[in-house]
Amino acid sequence: MQPERAALACLLPLELSASYSWGSTAAERARPFPCDGLVPEPTDALFRAVDVAAPARVLFRWLCQLRAAPYSYDWIDNLGCQSPRHLTPGLERLAVGQRVMTFFELVAFEPDRHLTLVGSAPGFGANMGELALSYFVVPRGDSSSRLVVKILVRYPRGPLGWAMRGLLPWGDLVMMRKQLLTLKRLAEAAAAQEGT
C-alpha cells in the first residue's frame, strides 16, 4: 500500500469509505472484472453499485446510451444538453474502438453483461493518469439486475496526481452516483412500460 493510502486507512479503511465503495458489497469488490489488468499498477480501485428493477437486457441497452451522453449532471459534463431520455436506435450496435462519453474508448464488451472502457481523449493520460472501468450487469432473476462499476486509476506523478488522489474518489462518486441512479430510473421505466 502506498504511504498516502496507509495514512488515510488509519482514519477510515478506504474500502469502507463511500468515495471508494458506494453501494458495493465486499464480495463484489473481491470478484474479477474485465478492466482488471488494463491499468498497470493502479493507485486506486473505486467501486459503485446499484440495484435495478429491470432485466439485465433492458439495463444493458441503457448502458449502450453512454455512447451518446454521460447521463450525470448534464450542465457539468454534457455542455448543458440533456442526455437523451429515449433510446437512440443503433447505439446498441457496439464495436471495440467506439467513443463513449467523449473521453473514453470501448475496449471490450459482452452483450447484456459488461462495457469496459479506457480513458483515451487527447491529453487524458498526462492530465488524468491512466483509467479503466467496467460497467458490469449482474442478472437477478427475470425482472431485476444489479449494476456494479469498477474503476481502476493510476494517478499522474507530481502535484496534479496528489491533488487527484484526494479529489477524484469524491468527485467521481458525485458524478457516477447521479449517472447510475439516472440509468436505473430510465431502465426501470422502460421495463415497466414493457410489462416485465
Structural notes for this entry:
With 196 residues, the chain is α+β, with helices and mostly antiparallel strands. It has one domain: Alpha-D-Glucose-1,6-Bisphosphate, Chain A, domain 4, CATH 3.30.530.20. Helix content is 37%, strand content 22%. It has helices at 3-11, 18-21, 26-30, 56-64, 74-77, 124-128, 159-194, and strands at 44-52, 99-100, 104-110, 114-119, 130-139, 145-154. A six-stranded antiparallel beta sheet has the order 1-6-5-4-3-2. Helix 4 (56-64) crosses helix 7 (159-194). 34% of the residues are buried. The model is unreliable at 5-12 (pLDDT under 50).
Largest sheet, strands/sense/barrel: 6 strands, antiparallel
- Helix fraction, binned, reads 25-40%
Structural class: alpha+beta
Span of the ends, CA to CA:
46 Å
- The first-level CATH class name: Alpha Beta
What is the number of helical segments per DSSP (H or I, 4+ residues)?
Answer: 7
Provide the low-confidence segments as ranges. 5-12
Shape: globular
Number of strands: 6
What's the pLDDT, averaged over the residues? Answer: 86
The portion of residues forming beta strands comes to: 15-25%
Oligomer: single chain
Q: How many separate structural domains? A: 1
The SSE string, one letter per element, is: HHHEHHEEEHEEH
CATH architecture: 2-Layer Sandwich
Short note summarizing the structure:
The protein has 196 residues and is an alpha+beta fold. It contains seven helices and six strands, in the order αααβααβββαββα.
